[in-house]
Amino acid sequence: MLGKSFKIVEPRRFDLYIDDLVCAPDEAVVKIEYAAICKADLRYYLGARDKKTLGFKYPMNLLHEAAGSIVVDQTKNFEVGDRVVLVPNMIPPTKHECENCVCQQADLGENYCPHALFASSNYNGFSREYVNYPVGYLLKIPAKVAPQLATFTELVSVAISAYRRLNLQGDETVGVWGDGVLGFILSATLRSLHPKGKIIVVGKDEHRLGRFLADRCYLAGDPEISEENILVAYECVGGRFSAEAINEIIDQIAVGGRIVLAGVAEEPIGINTRKILEKGLSLYGVTRSSRADFKKALNLFVNEGFQAAISQLILAETIINDITDFYRAFEAELGNKELGKNILRFNI
Fold it and tell me: For residues 29 and 288, what is the distance between their CA atoms, to the nearest angstrom?
């Protein structure tokens, strides 16, 4: 089976490939229907990684947030036409035994396995007409959930992973730093999974903050934040402003508090280690997610209130007919300052 494929071959350059799909016995063929561009995709598009890393990555299919429909399934686990999301984080069946295996650890899981393959990072992503994919990493989208909305499953699963990492219980006050898409999704997810807790959000855009599902929102630097007894904080800022956010968290969080770092900064950043030591704080890194997190994310989407909240993040639907449309979609996302994403509908 042949299919069209867009690969990044150097900064700001995609080439059209024709893929010959050969399915293994445990794989199904999925037609990619909807996808979204994330910040990691934009970094590869701009070449905003060190040259050595990019030399290993190019050429590569980008995109790891996607939904599609089953074309062929040799395993008979799915019916032709079933709508599915693709879990981008895979453990190869032939992986070597790890000296310190983390896959079965509840707080870590396979997303930290050193042998993991992640679509659009060290494995081809979903900017393709068709993908042959292991059925174990395909999850059926519930009938009540639109496939356009299901493209946010990956981000919701990351939020669930961040929640799972700390095993929150009771009525802790939780702070979320960041008024972007990840911060919005994390606050909505916490609202569902941590209903007895108080959720506050700290950001820089008052208009964006007004849309968050939180008990209280503050602008960064507001002295009233210190009146909140924040026991757990999530940093969702990333980039060049991540140090500013992390240091404000360190200042504002309670003694003995726990901080989850979920934003990505390409360059080393400076944080106040003295105050971390003085306050006895714990820092956790959270990235990616597991199949179990994806399943929980899809279950959350069945809730109409959660669906309505995440639906606000769909700015528009961009039809991708050819590689020129694909270029335009990336350029548009580079200039996107709104709270949300343009969903790509593949028609190639």
Answer: 24
Question: Tokens standing for 50?
Answer: 């060190």
Report yes or no: 165 and 284 within 8 Å, Cβ to Cβ.
yes
CATH superfamily of 2-152+313-346: Medium-chain alcohol dehydrogenases, catalytic domain (3.90.180.10)
Q: Are 329 and 37 in contact (CB under 8 A)?
A: yes
Instruction: Give, in order, the Cα–Cα distances in Å from 344 to each of 45, 291, 305, 332.
Output: 16, 23, 24, 11
User: For residue 181, what is the enclosing H or E element?
Assistant: helix 181-193
DSSP letters for 50-87:
-HHHHHHH-SB----EEEEEEEEETTSSS-TT-EEEE-
Beta strand pairing call for 258-261 and 282-285 = parallel
User: Could you tell me the pLDDT band of residue 13, with boundaries at 50, 70 and 90?
Assistant: very high
Domain 161-285 maps to which CATH number in 3.40.1350.10, 3.40.1130.10, 3.40.50.1220, 3.40.50.720? 3.40.50.720
Q: Is residue 243 within 8 Å of residue 259, measured between CB atoms?
A: no
Q: Is the dihedral of CA 72, 122, 18, 87 positive or negative?
A: positive
pLDDT score recorded for residue 96? 62
Residue type, 59: P
Q: Tell which phi-psi region holds residue 63, choosing left (phi > 0), alpha (psi between -120 and 50) or beta.
A: left
- Averaged confidence pLDDT in the chain: 94
pLDDT tens by residue, 153-198: 999 999 999 999 998 888 899 999 999 999 999 999 999 999 999 9
Q: Rounded to an integer, what distance in angstroms lies between the CA atom of residue 17 and that of residue 61? A: 10
Q: What are the residues facing 256 on neighbouring strands?
A: none
CA distance 272 to 347: 49
Assessment of whether the complete model's pTM goes beyond 0.85: yes
Q: How many CA atoms lie within 13 A of 101 on its CB side?
A: 7
* pLDDT, tens only, 112-163: 888 889 999 999 999 999 999 999 999 999 999 999 999 999 999 999 999 9
